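Let's practice the habit of predicting before peeking. Look at the sequence and jot down your guess about where helices and strands might fall. Then scroll down.
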Amino acid sequence: MKYKIATFLFLIISLSSCKEDDQKRIAENEKDAKKKEIIFSNINKGWVFYDTPINTTAEESEGTWNEFRLFLKELAQKPKTTIGAFQQKAKAISKKAMALNENLPIQFNKPQIKSRISTLITKVRLLDLYIHLDAISDKKVVGLISEINKELASLQREMDKIVEKSKIPVELGESDLMKMMDASRAIPNSSPTINDPNLPQIE
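Done guessing? Here is the structure:
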């Protein structure tokens, strides 16, 4: 009889502890779901890219520079459903950003353009990294989107500067002057100068 009572009490205690564990698990799951919902909502609100050209040069380049056009097109397509959709989109944007270095139009194949593309790629890859973390920081993701927009605008402004500079007519003799100023083309001076105070003077 005592054995039956002990078994019965043990079962009651086990059942009540199981219920408590289940309630804790449910509460934690609800808390986690709410947190994920807030993160998704914040990323969804902040996922706004400048996907249209900001000047005439960028607009014209969209027609001739395929990689640039595809990058802007990728930015324009906003995911809607889940965090997973945003993660896939970040990966796709990263791929398109990397391709910007390929087939650069001759007029933009310059160090100042390449450095801006490099910075833009870095920011896009950081976005891809942060959105794939287990604990996603929505603030960091939204902040990176803003930085990507700044870098993209900076790239387009630099493109415009290059095009505007190329339109300025070269004055007569200016190209010869530029060649003369180029230190790499200078003939090294091997003969000592007569007025050098460090050399012995001939009287």
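How did you do? The CA atoms of residues 101 and 117 lie 7 Å apart.
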